[in-house]
Design brief:
- The protein is mainly alpha-helical.
- The chain is about 75% helix and about 0% strand.
- It has a domain of about 120 residues.
- The protein contains 20 helices and no strands.
- The two termini are about 30 Å apart.
């Protein structure tokens, strides 16, 4: 009698039935928050000056709500889940296909990097997946770190932007390391940041598909500069490392059941995060695209103390509420299960609604219409996601991603 074929076993994906529903629901919630924040960029709201906004009813309330409730919190949740998912995926792969776990994960990550690079350079410069994919390789090389080391390194990374900003300020180092200027030169030959903003304005208003793609490729260099300007790299890596630690705790059964830890997280978020959020709002955000200044330095400190504690408090509150109201909160589960597809769909819808190559509603409407569009789009994604999973096992982009990762065709329809 022939024994099992190891090569065949190596090619079997991890079943979707092993996923944690609460993680998908949290991912869905993060998607909603991310689009609520991003709709400002698609609509051009962030590029209105204070004088223009003063003539629009509710503008101050809307901006304050974004800064105090939305800004940074949901990409933090998304980053946390990326790190947590890394720990779960690697553990499952090691248990299922130990001999090829590392190569399979790296291939999966490489494909995500290509997808994100196309998304950022061709479609939308506000992409977050490219940075996630790059940092995913860092997580891989840190996979052997002890739990305590992960938390210590994460703490250091959270603090790095403060002395880093100060050092750049005193040494006169360009916040973007010159990448805003590179983007400006590519757009119109200018040697300051004006060309970068001109390119962003044009990409929103152009009716030419060819020019749209060309501009996206040019200003995507500025997006990388934005990572340096806002110190996004150490921040996101620190969050992912905490997620990686949380994934290990989840596997050991010491996370979702740890009520004391969840309550402490909420308490810390309220005590530290709330007053810091008020200070952060008074500083009008991170002061990105601006020369170094005292306000900029203070905003970096306020951001760290406001955004991260409250984001983790959001996660803890959601986890405790999930215990009592899973049927209500599970509304976020289906869109979270196909997070990659829905994230890319948000780009398509945002561009179609607001950009010149779409319906051209850029700078049309006020805060209420922006909030309404964000809610309607996500309700649409909830509906479509549930209809999709009634017939299929994976989101469309996730299915393609899996087939490329495993190097063979895989069924997409749900088993009856």
């Amino acid at each position: 009698m022939n024994g099992p074929n190891p090569a065949a076993a190596d090619a079997v994906p991890i079943p979707a039935s092993t996923r944690y529903d609460i993680l998908d629901a949290l991912r869905g919630l993060a998607l909603f928050g991310i689009f609520f924040a991003n709709v400002q960029y698609f609509a051009g709201w962030l590029f209105l000056d204070s004088q223009a906004k003063s003539a629009i009813g509710g503008a101050y309330i809307y901006d304050a709500f974004i800064l105090m409730v939305i800004d940074g919190r949901f990409y933090t949740i998304f980053s946390f889940l990326f790190g947590l998912g890394f720990a779960l995926q690697l553990s499952r792969l090691e248990n299922k296909v130990a001999a090829k776990a590392n190569s399979l994960y790296l291939r999966r990550l490489s494909i995500l990097l290509l997808i994100s690079l196309m998304h950022m350079c061709l479609f939308w410069v506000g992409d977050i997946l490219f940075l996630y994919a790059l940092l995913g390789f860092v997580l891989f090389f840190m996979r052997k770190c002890a739990d305590r080391s992960l938390l210590l390194i994460a703490a250091i990374l959270f603090i790095v932007p403060i002395p880093g900003y100060y050092l750049f300020w005193k040494l006169g180092i360009d916040p973007s390391l010159g990448l805003y200027q590179v983007a400006s030169y590519l757009v119109d030959g200018s040697d300051d940041i004006s060309g970068f903003f001109a390119g962003f304005y044009e990409v929103v208003h152009t009716n030419s598909i060819v020019r749209y793609f060309e501009l996206n490729m040019e200003i995507s260099i500025g997006r990388v500069g934005y990572y340096f300007d806002t110190w996004r790299i150490p921040k996101v890596l620190g969050i992912m490392l905490i997620g990686m630690w949380a994934g290990r705790q989840l596997i050991a059964g010491k996370l979702l059941e740890n009520t004391a830890l969840l309550k402490k997280t909420i308490l810390f978020g309220l005590i530290v995060g709330l007053p810091s959020t008020v200070a952060y709002a008074n500083l009008s955000g991170l002061n990105s695209f601006q020369p170094h200044s005292l306000d900029g330095f203070l905003s970096v400190i306020a951001y760290m103390l406001a955004v991260f504690p409250l984001a983790f408090a959001y996660i803890a509150v959601f986890t405790l509420l999930w215990r009592k109201y899973p049927s209500i909160l599970s509304v976020f589960t289906a869109p979270g299960r196909m997070a990659l597809s829905n994230y890319l769909l948000q780009t398509f819808l945002g561009i179609s609604i607001f950009y010149g190559i779409g319906f051209g509603l850029h700078l049309k409407g006020g805060p209420l219409s922006l909030a309404a569009i964000a809610i309607v789009v996500f309700v649409l994604q909830i509906t479509v996601s549930n209809l999709w999973f009634a017939r299929f096992a994976y989101g469309p982009v996730e299915w393609i991603w899996r087939m490329l990762s495993y190097g063979r065709g895989l069924p997409i329809r749900r088993e009856q």
